[in-house]
User: Which sequence fits this backbone?
């Protein structure tokens, strides 16, 4: 039993040496001539305007995460396609359940407005909007 753990420990030590060796080698070989142009924020080939710590719209990340989530889920269709002939109706029923769950998730994300780029401002109701007061 100790030999199996020794293999894991050896791989761990080798990984640490490999990473440390790469960092030390790059520190020794890289040129050391920093200037203001190299320290400027890089914005996809555009000239940087303003500071790097600006407020960024989180919707880009939300849409990207939703895309990755559904993209990864679609990958499960490929193994299903391979076993469809062997499992027949069971595989077909399981895939309809799976696609139904995905559809419910998609409808939920759509209904919450997370796929909209320009979200309308939320309406904050006041008591006078909800209750009408009758006089006299």
Assistant:
């Amino acid at each position: 039993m100790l030999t199996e753990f020794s293999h894991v420990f050896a791989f761990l030590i080798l990984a640490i040496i490999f990473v440390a060796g790469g960092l030390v080698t790059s520190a020794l070989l890289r040129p050391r001539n920093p200037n203001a142009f190299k320290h400027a924020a890089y914005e996809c080939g555009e000239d940087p305007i303003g500071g790097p710590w600006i407020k960024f719209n989180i919707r880009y990340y939300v849409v990207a995460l939703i895309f990755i989530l559904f993209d990864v889920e679609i990958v499960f269709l490929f193994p299903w396609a391979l076993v469809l002939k062997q499992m027949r109706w069971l595989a077909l029923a399981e895939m309809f359940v799976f696609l139904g769950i995905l559809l419910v998730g998609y409808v939920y994300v759509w209904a919450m407005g997370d796929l909209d780029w320009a979200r309308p401002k939320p309406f904050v109701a006041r008591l006078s909007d909800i209750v009408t007061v009758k006089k006299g």
Observations:
- Residues 2-128 form a domain with the Methane Monooxygenase Hydroxylase; Chain G, domain 1 fold (CATH 1.20.58.1610).
- The mean pLDDT is 81.
- Residues 2-29 form the longest helix (28 residues).
- The two ends are 89 Å apart (CA to CA).
